[in-house]
Design a protein that fits this description.
The chain is built from 11 helices and 12 strands. It has 369 residues and is α/β, with parallel strands linked by helices. It is elongated, with a radius of gyration of 21 Å. It binds S-adenosyl-L-homocysteine and iron/sulfur cluster.
Length: 369
């Protein structure tokens, strides 16, 4: 588990994906532009193609001298090869399966929502191929960890999602990015935070997505929660709790044996104190496993014990995964669980389950070819 948490498996037996322009700092970009024999004003021009127009093939950039396009292309390797796109919800949800340069596969899900006269959109992004935490109810967890994704591979999911939105109609820009796809973001901390900086920087440095629209969901790597609160980014932190007691949480989220419920919740409350951002507690309801009224009461007691106004609970209907013994709770039990939290004045919402029928819901991503 130590290696998994520290991301030490990165690179073991794995050919590193090539470096991408978006991963380079200002100096490295300047040097590259100079090595191509181009004047320095080309630097912002090249970046703008990628971050403003979401274009990744320099061969088509006719404002660059034709003689330079081949060289520029070497800094824009194809990191994600689209294998398959599956649509559902009448074209409002798209699941993408991508092959990475070393053959590993990942998935991401784009969702659009009509709201008032406009529309909004969310990308559920992957940060690892597989996941090493091993929650038994999660399809990604059953794969084990293949490897961490690079900054470029995470950013490319974002760029390709914006390209998808253009064909899905309605939502012209990406409003939210949630790290709820494959993998544990805080076990690939450096790449995830760097990718978030790229997403949230304005042009010509980044995609200009508001940091308040970015959610990092974690199984509870406490030291990295502390680090995240000090990054100066107004992100939303989501904690996958699923049980208020160590006995049960130790079975559902194996990481709990390392950092228990008390430590995780107190780190989450500190995150709110430092950032002012309300924390989301994720609770996937499983029939006769974690959905008893006494567990709702215990959850409310533990959350309220750390203060008021710092947290809300997001109840997730359990999505089915292959060979899983876990079943979703009934509607009545779900309503009662939520009502008990409300009675204790803990804000609670029910997650709308998108993409279940295409195995694109939470915990269903397994990148099967
Ligand atoms: N590893 C991170 C983020 C990816 S999982 C984490 O665990 O938080 C994203 C969310 O999906 C988590 O809240 C996770 O607990 C939840 N999830 C996993 N399997 C699920 C399933 N079968 N049904 C519903 N939610 C699930
Ligand atoms: Fe990993 Fe999150 Fe799935 Fe657990 S729920 S196995 S931490 S992706």
């Amino acid at each position: 588990m130590d290696d998994v948490v520290a991301g030490n498996l990165e690179g073991v037996g794995v050919k590193k994906p090539p470096h991408h322009w978006i991963e380079l700092d200002a100096l490295a970009r300047q040097e590259l532009v100079a090595s191509w024999g181009l004047p320095s004003y080309r630097l912002a021009q090249i970046t703008r193609h990628y971050v403003e127009r979401f274009e990744a093939d320099p061969h088509t950039w006719t404002d660059l001298p034709a003689s330079a396009r081949e060289a520029v292309s070497s800094a824009f390797p194809v990191l994600l090869e689209p294998v398959r796109q599956t649509m559902t919800d009448r074209g409002r949800t798209a699941k993408n399966l991508y092959r990475l340069t070393d053959g590993a596969k990942i998935e991401s899900v784009v969702m659009t929502y009509a709201r008032g006269s406009g529309s909004r959109s969310t990308l559920c992004v992957s940060c690892q191929a597989g996941c090493g935490i091993g929650c038994p109810f999660c399809a990604t967890g059953q794969l084990g960890l293949q490897r961490n994704l690079t900054v470029g591979e995470i950013c490319e999911q974002v760029r390709l999602a914006v390209v998808d939105l253009e064909s899905m109609g309605g939502a012209p820009k990406l409003n939210n990015v949630v790290f709820m796809g494959m993998g544990e973001p805080l076990a690939n901390y450096g790449a995830v935070v760097e990718a978030i900086r790229v997403m949230t920087a304005g042009s010509p440095d980044g995609f200009g997505i508001t940091a308040r629209g970015v959610t990092v969901s974690t199984a509870g790597i406490v030291p990295r929660i502390v680090d995240l609160s000090a990054e100066g980014l107004p992100l939303t932190l989501a904690i996958s709790l699923h049980a208020p007691d160590d006995d049960l949480r130790g079975d559902l989220v194996p990481l709990n044996k390392r950092w228990g419920v008390g430590e995780v919740l107190s780190a989450a409350a500190d995150y709110f104190r430092v950032t002012g951002r309300r924390v989301s507690i994720e609770y996937a309801l499983m029939r006769d496993v974690n959905d008893q009224p006494w567990r709702a009461d215990l959850l409310a007691k533990k959350l309220n014990g750390l203060g008021r106004g710092w947290v809300h609970v997001n109840v997730i209907p359990l999505n089915p995964t292959p060979d899983s013994p876990w079943q979703p709770s009934t509607r009545k039990t779900t309503e009662e669980f939520m009502a008990r939290l409300e009675q204790a004045r803990v804000p609670v919402t029910l997650r709308d389950s998108r993409g279940q029928d295409i195995d694109g819901g939470c915990g269903q991503l397994a990148a099967r070819a």
